[in-house]
Design goal:
The protein is an alpha+beta fold. Strand 8 and strand 9 (143-152) form a beta hairpin. The structure holds flavin-adenine dinucleotide. Flavin-adenine dinucleotide is lined by residues 11-17, 34-37, 45-46, 123-124, 153-157, 172-173, 179, 182, 198-200, 275, 341, 367-368, 373-375, 378.
Length: 627
């Protein structure tokens, strides 16, 4: 044995593995992160961007709990946008264009700074088992390494097979070897594996592109950021560009359909329905004569461009010819073809809420191996697995977030309860408590918990306390201060709402949809002075008044969601013993009994969310439990 014994071994240095290793090590475990290439940690395999609709909320939740993805993003982003500003605040979603190489380097720096976390470049081919549990890994170079727990975060690498037209070969990403051995080893131990597929577009040298025929997509001004901590603001933003395919492009792409691995049936795994390849889009939306593409820079110094929306596994020659028919790309020099990749995943209904395997003790799974797609989803699971592996080996109960507490709660609950047949990505529509689970209040929802378990540090917790006090202070000013008609009516008329006739509390004005607190603060110097005087940090004040405005404007909706959440949480508190054999309930359908036996739900709430479980099945369970 070359290497010491560790408390926790993390297999894989992608987004899930990095968060898992950092969380477990920061909590005090001695952690070894083994990955195929320590030079490309948390590599963005596809588009160089973090966040987006629902995903941005997840990144902020990771941050609120004490994870690192948001901090890495803030340090390395080249553009920031708050998406969906024109919709309600439940939909506001931060998104950053990242510098791909710097993102990896920042992760490497942060991980190497954690004293009890070691990195090791190697391939894990099998696990070492004792009785019903895992006790270490078998690595190609280092041999046997022992640990109390193992977290598998091997992404798209397990038996990864890359497809480009009629060519296919083994690989975890283009230019990187795949990993074999682990799936077979786990299957021998009774863990089920299946295949999924994902894809990525061509990359182009930006010096060969004519941007004058495209529409620039600038970042927000003023800019924003992800972390609730005092990370550096983004100084210089880079543009993305919008362009479109056309009939000629479609015609060329269709010529390649016969050699498409997708249509010829060479790809067996299911792909992400919501992130389809360009050939998929042509096939499904035949009536469309153009499709939107976003041209995204890969980094500040990089000359590489990522063509978002043009993912393809058609033959290289077809991809190249088609691209050159898009205005601006006539002289494009192409650096890398688009490709599809098929890989093994382990259906996540085989996991407990802690992300520990139900079959092998002390073995955790996180990220793409659980059937998800996306950096954010992977990072969130990594964080939860890292926390819970550490807590498990220290005899502490796992952390399980509720659906009403966090998108991360929705993600884990969906995975372990319903499983997934296609790459799972997060959407706001998956969350029933969207107005509670906003990006602005992730710290108020989760930082206290993060602090209690030891992951969110003192400084973070103190910032939350200051922000909470500021929120109360601003609410107090708005609820108690009245404004004269003469001072405010010009503003009200400017935003197309009627003027006031007598002194009116600011809180009443905020309820009007036309009135924006930021505009009120900018317009009314007395109000501005009262709020600004509350604290010396303008960024904290801004965060606080944004939260206050949302809470005031949407108080009715918030109250309703809280009431429903409380009702549902009562069902979550009614536990179901693991040893129940659901076959003994003849009044339930066979489908329900089989599904309940497969999932072995922790509680009535989880049972009710299994697809195919009806309200009458739930009643049977309640009667059985004497409720
Ligand atoms: C071609 C392609 C296209 C994609 N397209 C999209 C997209 O359009 N949208 C989207 O949201 N997501 C997309 N993704 C998915 C996105 O990259 C992943 O969701 C995300 O990176 C998953 O993170 P992860 O940590 O689970 O795994 P990964 O980022 O894949 O990292 C896995 C890590 O595990 C290591 N590893 C694997 N096996 C072993 C082993 N046996 N021993 C040691 N180390 C090992 C690898 O070296 C790697 O560092 C795409 C991925 C690929 C490859």
């Amino acid at each position: 044995m070359l290497i010491d014994r560790y408390d926790i071994i993390v297999v894989g240095g992608g987004h899930a593995g990095c968060e898992a290793a950092a969380a477990a090590a920061k909590l005090g475990s001695k952690v070894l992160l083994i990955t195929l290439n320590v030079g490309v940690l948390a590599k963005m395999s596809c588009n160089p961007a973090m966040g987006g609709v629902a995903k941005g909320q997840i990144v902020r939740e990771i941050d609120a709990l004490g994870g690192l993805s948001a901090i890495v993003t803030d340090h390395t982003m080249i553009q920031f946008r708050m998406l969906n500003r024109s919709k309600g605040p439940a939909m506001w979603s931060p998104r950053a264009q990242s510098d791909r190489i710097r993102f990896s380097m920042k992760w490497q720096e942060l991980l190497m700074d954690i004293p009890n976390l070691h990195l090791w470049q190697d391939s894990v081919d099998a696990l070492i088992y004792k009785n019903k549990g895992v006790i270490g890994v078998q690595a190609k170079l280092a041999g046997k390494i022992y640990s109390d727990a193992v977290i598998i975060t091997s992404g798209t690498f397990l038996n990864g097979k890359i497809h480009i037209g009629s060519i296919n070969f083994g690989g975890g990403r283009l230019g990187e070897e795949n990993a074999s051995g682990l799936t077979q080893d786990l299957r021998k131990r009774g863990i089920l594996s299946q295949r999924l597929k994902t894809g990525t577009p061509v990359r182009v040298d930006k010096r060969s592109v004519d941007f004058s025929s495209m529409t620039p997509q600038p970042g927000d001004d003023p800019t924003g950021k992800f972390s609730f901590m005092d990370t550096p603001p983004l100084k210089e933003q880079m543009n993305c560009y919008l362009c479109y395919t056309n009939e000629k492009v479609h015609q060329i792409l269709r010529q390649g359909f016969e050699q498409s691995p997708l249509f010829a049936g060479r790809i067996q795994g299911t792909g992400p329905r919501y992130c389809p390849s360009i050939e998929d889009k042509l096939d499904r939306f035949t009536e469309r004569d153009r499709h939107q593409l976003f041209v995204e820079p890969d980094g500040r110094e990089s000359h590489e461009l990522y063509i978002n929306g043009f993912s393809s596994s058609l033959p290289i020659e077809i991809q190249f010819r088609a691209l050159k028919e898009i205005p601006g790309f006539e002289k494009a020099r192409i650096l890398q073809p688009g490709y599809a990749i098929e890989y093994d995943y382990f259906p996540p209904q085989q996991l407990n809420y802690s992300l520990e395997s139900k079959i092998i003790q002390n073995l955790y799974f996180a990220g793409q191996v659980n059937g998800t797609t996306g950096y954010e989803e992977a990072a969130a699971q990594g964080l939860i697995a890292g926390i819970n592996a550490h807590r498990n080996i220290n005899n502490e109960l796992p952390i399980v977030l509720k659906r009403s507490e966090a998108y991360i709660g929705v993600l884990v609950d969906d995975l372990v309860t319903k499983g997934t047949q296609e790459p799972y990505r997060m959407f706001t529509s998956r969350a029933e408590f969207r107005i509670l689970l906003r990006q602005d209040n992730a710290d108020q929802r989760l930082t206290t918990l993060g602090h209690e378990i030891g992951l969110a540090g003192h400084e973070r917790y103190e910032r939350l306390k200051v922000k909470t006090e500021l929120i109360l202070g601003i609410e107090n000013i708005l609820n108690t201060t009245s404004v004269e008609p003469g001072r405010i009516n010009t503003y009200l008329e400017n935003v197309n709402t009627s003027g006031i006739e007598r002194k009116t509390k600011y809180a009443n004005l905020i309820l009007r949809p036309q009135v924006k607190l930021k505009q009120l603060i900018d317009f009314d110097s007395e109000l501005r002075r009262a709020i600004v005087n509350l604290h010396s940090d303008p960024s904290l004040i801004k965060e606080a008044w944004e939260s206050v405005e949302i809470q005031m404007k949407y108080s009715g909706y918030l109250e309703k969601e809280r009431e429903i959440a409380e009702k549902i949480n009562r069902l979550e508190n009614i536990s179901l013993p693991k040893e129940i054999d659901y076959m003994v309930f003849p009044s339930m359908s066979m489908e329900a009994r089989e599904k309940l036996n497969r999932v072995k739900p922790d509680n009535i709430g989880q049972a009710s969310r299994i697809s195919g479980i009806t309200p009458s099945d739930v009643s049977v369970l309640l009667v059985y439990l004497g409720r």
